[in-house]
Each structure stands twice: as C-alpha cells, then as structure tokens.
Amino acid sequence: MAADKPGLFALMRAPFFSSIFAPLLVGTLLAVFSRGEFSLAGFAAMLVMGVGLHAATNVYNDIFDTLQGTDRINLHRNDFSGGSGFLIAHPELLPRMYRVARNSLLVAAVAALALMAVSERRFWPWLIGLYLLSAFFSKFYTAAPVKLASRGLGEISVWFAFGPMAILVAAISQNTLFHPYIVSAMPITGLSTSSILWMGQMIDLQADSSAGKRGMVARIGSRRGRWGFLLIHLLLIANIVVLGLWVLPHGRFILAALIPYLLLLPRTWKIVYQFHDQPDRLKAAAAWNVQIHLLMSTLLVLGLGTMLLLK
User: Fold this and answer.
1) pLDDT recorded at residue 1
2) CATH architecture for residues 15-310
3) CB-count burial class (<10 Å; 0-12, 13-18, 19+) for 89
4) Which of 183, 281, 182, 292 has its CA nearest to residue 234?
5) How far apart are CA 252 and CA 254, in angstroms?
6) Which pTM value belongs to this model?
7) Mean pLDDT to the nearest integer, 100-124
8) How many CB atoms lie within 10 A of CB 124?
9) How far apart (Å, rounded) are the C-alpha atoms in residues 83 and 70?
C-alpha cells in the first residue's frame, strides 16, 4: 500500500544526520572562537551543503547495498546497522531513491556555490575540492567500480568525511582554515561516527562477507575487530583530553564530553568483548554506542559554546 511506503525523511535516514551536525557545529564554534566573528550566511549555506551530502550518502548506500545483495541476505538488520531494507519491501522505489540521491547532491552543490559567494576567494579551491571529494565518497563508498567499503577503505573515508573534511568546511564557512584549534579537533567526530560504522560491521559481518563487502572487520574477523572498536574509542578519548587540557583556552569545559564514556563505555565494551561473534547480543551494545555518540557530541558542542561565551 502507498501509505506504507517511506517518506522523504525516512529515505534520507534523517535521524542519522547527527553524525554531520556534530562536526559542522564543532568546526563553526572553533572557527568563531579563533576568529572572533560569526557569518550567519556562511553557517546556513554550510549546513545545507553538509546535510545534502549526508542525505545522498545514506540513500546511495541503501541503493547499492540492496543491488549488490548485502541487504537481501542480512538477517540481523536493526536501527543501528545494515541498510533500511526499503528497496527489498518496495523495489519500485528505486527510481525515486536515485532521484533523491542525485537531487541531494545538487542541493549540496548549490549550497557550496552560495558558500563560495560569501567566503573569501582564497577558500574557493578548498570548497570545490571538499565538495567533489565528498560527492565521490557519497556514491562510491558502495558503488562500483570503486566500492571503497569492499576494499577496506570505507572506514578511512568515513573518518575523513565526518572528521577533518566536515570540520574544515565549517571552518571555511567562517573564513578560517587550518587554525591549530581546528586541526586539533579534526579527528574527534570522525572517530565517533567510525565507531558506529565499526559496530555495524561486527553485526553485519556474515552478510557483508557473503556479499563480498570486505570492510576492515570482515578482513580481520570479530575477535580482533573488537579491539579495533575499543581502540577507536580510546583514540577519541585521548583527543578530547589533549584538546581540553593543552590546546584550547578554558578547554576544561569540553571534558564534560567524556561523561558518556565513563558511564556507558564499560558496559558497551563488556558486551562487545564477550559477544563479539553474536550479532543479536551486539545489538544492545550498538544502542549504547549510539547513545555515547549522541551524548558526547552534545556535550562537546555545549562545552565549546560555553568557552565561546566566556571568552
């Protein structure tokens, strides 16, 4: 029935936009903190650009995971891993999903042009390059012939896109580039999003391997993969500590972003360590991991906002 078909926001998997909002807000706050000025026009254009690129990424990933067979054989699909399954239930949606993905890239391109119009000319090559690379990642994370996710390069592209690239676009929207504050914060949000991807790969390991989607977890197995999950979080924690204690003035406020790790990471890691090869048991850990991501991102943004107010 038509009423059962997903709407536009469902197709774009809008609840996952937190992964792009976090770096864009972090980059903006740090740029304003370092420069002392705020461009509302640049901020608005940058947000539209980021959301458009993320929406295209989500939809393309759904399309090609289905066409390549991963979603069809995934028995452990859940809210935190795997594709949406929309095309399996509604294969007639394929043309519409292609349109949504392409239109999202078009909207992002228009927003990038608007951002160029309000940015200094010296930033234009950076904006063009960042848009083109983001659009490339958006489609070819799963699409042939590149298939980054199948070559063990998906994790790197996700970290790069949701960390350094997104934060740099946000900084440029405020006419800032490689300021030490910006560079020091670049890994954090990418690592947080990578932890969600890594957990999803552990849950989807069987389906991914069967479909030839050989990400890092599929290559090293869940036993070693669990340590990769822990390493991602430890690197993130270290980055926040260094940024808060040694890089930023009044940086102690961002240390509040560590609270979710103190409260939730031990129980999450316990599940991952014990049940790394049991997808159904890992779903609870995936839920906790998303909560860590959301809370850390929120507290980091609030901490940076507090720094800015006290400057």
Assistant:
1) 43
2) Orthogonal Bundle (1.10)
3) exposed
4) 292
5) 5
6) 0.94
7) 97
8) 15
9) 8
Q: Are 65 and 150 in contact (CB under 8 A)?
A: no
Q: Helix (H, G, I), strand (E, B), or coil: what is residue 275?
A: coil
Tokens of residue 298, six digits: 């929120």
Q: Distance from first CA to last CA of the chain, Å, rounded?
A: 56
Check if the beta carbon of residue 259 is closer than 8 Å to that of residue 232: no
pLDDT digits (tens, 9 = 90+) for 242-264: 999 999 999 999 999 999 999 99
User: Would you kindly state where each structural domain of the chain is located, as residue ranges?
Assistant: 15-310
Q: How far is CA 74 from the centre of its chain?
A: 22
Q: pLDDT, tens digit, for every residue of 39-71?
A: 999 999 999 999 999 999 999 999 998 888 776
| CB distance 255 to 242 below 8 Å | no
Closest CA to 244 of 26, 41, 4, 91: 26
Which residues, 6+ apart, have CB-to-CB distance to 8 below 8 Å?
100
Q: What is the DSSP string of 62-113?
A: HHHHHHTTTGGG-S--BTTBS---HHHH-GGGHHHHHHHHHHHHHHHHHHHH
- DSSP letter at 28 equals H
Degrees, nearest 5: CA angle 120-124-127: 120
